[in-house]
Amino acid sequence: MSADASDLSLVRRVQRGDKGAFDVLVLKYQHKLVKLVMRYVRNPAEAEDIAQEAFIKAYRALPQFRGESAFYTWLYRIAINTAKNAVVSRDRSPIEYNVDRGSTDNEESYDMQGRMKDSETPEGLVLTDEIRSTVNAAIDALPEDLRTAIVLRELEGLSYEEIAAAMACPVGTVRSRIFRAREAIDRRLREVFEGGLGRTEELG
Amino acid sequence: MNEELDSQLSAMFDNELPAAECELLARRLSRDADLKARWGRYAVIGAVIRAERGVALDGTMAGRVSAALSSEPALSIDTAPASRRSRASSWWQPLGGAGLAAGVAVVSILWLRSQALPGGSPVAAPVMVATRTATFGSPSAQGALQAASATTTPDSFVVPPIQQRPMMVVPATELADYVVAHSAFSWPVSRGNLLSSLMVSEPGTSSTPAESDQRAPRVQGNATQNPK
Amino acid sequence: MRPRIRSSERIGLLALALAIAGVASADEPAKWLERMNHALTTLNYDGTFSHWQGGKVEMLRIIHRVEHGTVAERLASLDGSGREFIRTGASLTCYLPDKHVVLVERTPAKVSLLGGFPAVDERTARFYDIKEVARMRFNQRSTHLITVMPRDQYRYGYRLWLDDSTAMPLKTQLCDADGNVIEQIVFANLKIRPRIPDSAFRPDISTAGFQWLRNDAASLKETVVRSETVWNAGRLPPGFRMTVRAAQTMPGSGPVDHLVFTDGLASVSVFVETHVVTTSGQAPVVESAHVGSSYAFSTVVDGHKVTAVGEVPPQTVRFIAAAVKAEKASGSAPPPASLAPLPGGPFARTPPLH
């Protein structure tokens, strides 16, 4: 069984025209990608822009992805390149109009049209805080075996087999514990999401 | 709430679900808004556990990417460059005759599936998609013309039926020249499309516009909502 | 170094920009199309774009220059085939590295790319719904999203993201009547320059060991046969009218009459071969074909091969090709090899001719 079966099955669907499957990949990796990009770019809003661009580039390049590497590795490389390019050509648009020096004045007036990123709006920031505290509180409330399992998985990145070895239990138990941990946390998290902004249900 | 399904979802999220079950779940996941939402929340849980500071957790980026993709065309699996090249080599068959005719034929061959022999009758075309209106070797010229007219001339200027099945690419050797000659009269934007199409190494493949639309109609449907 | 703008000037400029944007005149979207046409045909630019069609994406480069009325153009495939088309003045050279062939075609110098393309007029609005639907930023440029949606299934539609400063189409989508995207061109980068050197129009590939094939139209001068028949289309899809009638010699198929039908946006060329096809007992072939999103349809009328080609749906080329017929020649005067455009046509053009 390939360790990457999950991503590959989604990638294959995208390659056959199912854009919804790409949404699923974005949902899974968006946080990781933004965190990665922030190594190059301090501003979180800019990092989100770049991560967004990286996802779009990945979508367009997906026909060339043949599974030689893990999808996330491939995506990771695209994101790094995108971030590096963005840093180098910071405010330079790839579209240059050099015919007449004077005419560049017009561009300035349009730069004033800003766009408030959701993460910069007061509501966005409050929601993030609320999400964070909800999840942390829910984790604290978990029974120890469930908490250990999910933390080993998400924080240490261990496979089910490795966790089974660490916790001296069968793999099936690991899977069940992680699942139940997520369920317990999600019960509380769902309320936050469905009550406020950032409904991920809007997708698809 | 289906426990087994959610347990599978959790395992798939961790890349710990057997490949066969992944295929099934992937299909379901891409269409089910609730499942997607849950999947998204699993990702949020992970991000919080890793204490990823400064990252907005409300998940609206995914929505923005999705919106941006709605005006991107759907992909098609035939894009693999390797298969492109191998198909290309089977087309080119050198023609005898004057350098002139051969030269034209070389450019024309780029868009040929089969070529017309000097006499004007086509060689057996590869079995690609056939058009209903093409008639080969029909009993009489008149019959051929009538067949063509009958299907192409509607009785009134009512909106004609939806685009028919994609057509076989069996043009005459002069097609490429006609396309180039015609491009001089095209709208500049169309010229760009035309000339770019001429550049592509694999012309008119099985994934013709009508086909790719049919393959993912629901997905394409999103694209239309955007600017209307 | 760009002069820095004082904040008071910025506000003034912004107010002006907003005021201009606020003036919603009914024909403004159509004007944007004209601006775009003008930009594409008169500016010097060098850009890289992705071309999506039939589920595949390819990167290409386009360099375009107009100098003293002469157009130089280079279109190169950046991946895949490595092919290049280079047009300088009267010469079109096709580099085909995957075939180890270079094809050189010389066209008469009179062929100008500046004229002859359809123009949007009030008739066009009857068959297309032309709207500006949004202002948006694309690649950090302010753009106008103009949609040109056909009112029937005989023509294609477009979505155009036009750069506010230059009117260049930064992103273009070709759509069917239902709005589905058939083809897309997106510029990844685009530079507009006052001057582009000749060196930009040299191919990137080495042609060592290539076969050179030349098609020199000049040598075909003697073989031009004036057609004695005047061709026309018996009926046309709504909105289409003939705008050009010319005689040409096509390498490979010999002399042809070339008719152009357009509805102001979409255009269809009809080529009627002057020579009568010798059927030798076999039925003439009716053929359909496509190049990218454009369709072609060939049939035989009175023994002459007729081919219609255009960036229109297949039913349109079929319609027009099947409707071609010979008109009775008027009097004994031979029809001129080229006619002035029909009255009412929106453009004047000198067709290519020997």
How would you characterize the overall build of this protein?
- The complex is a heterotrimer of chains A (204), B (228) and C (354).
- With 204 residues, chain A is mainly alpha-helical.
- Chain A is 67% helix and 1% strand.
- Chain A starts with a helix and ends in a 9-residue tail after the last helix.
- Helix content of chain B is 53%, strand content 0%.
- Chain B has 228 residues and is mainly α.
- Chain B is elongated, with a radius of gyration of 25 Å.
- Chain C folds into two domains: 188 residues, Clam (outer membrane lipoprotein receptor (LolB), chain A); 109 residues, Phosphorylase Kinase, domain 1 (2-Layer Sandwich).
- Chain C is 13% helix and 44% strand.
- Chain C is built from four helices and 20 strands.
- The interface between A and C is medium-sized, with 23 and 32 residues.
- Strand 1 of chain A pairs parallel with strand 11 of chain C, so a sheet runs across the interface.
Helix content of chain A: 55-70%
Q: Please report the number of helical segments of chain A.
A: 9
Strand order, sheet with most strands of chain C: 7-8-9-10-11-1-2-3-4-5-6-12
Q: Return Rg of chain C in Å.
A: 22 Å
Largest interface: B-C, 107 and 119 residues
User: Could you say which structural class the secondary elements and strand pairing of chain A correspond to?
Assistant: mainly alpha
**How would a crystallographer describe the biggest sheet of chain C?**
12 strands, mixed
The SSE string of chain C, one letter per element, is HHEEEEEEHEEEEEEEEEEEEEHE
Order of helices and strands of chain A: HHHHEHHHHH
For the record, give the distance between the C-alpha atoms at the N and C termini of chain C, rounded to a whole number.
51 Å
Shape of chain A: globular
Rounded mean pLDDT of chain A is 79
Oligomer: heterotrimer
What portion of the residues of chain A fall into strands of 2 or more residues?
Answer: under 5%
Number of domains of chain C: 2
Strand content of chain C is 35-45%
The residue-averaged pLDDT of chain C reads 76
- Sheet having the most strands of chain A: none
Please identify, by name, the CATH architecture of the largest domain in chain C: Clam
Helix content of chain C: 10-25%
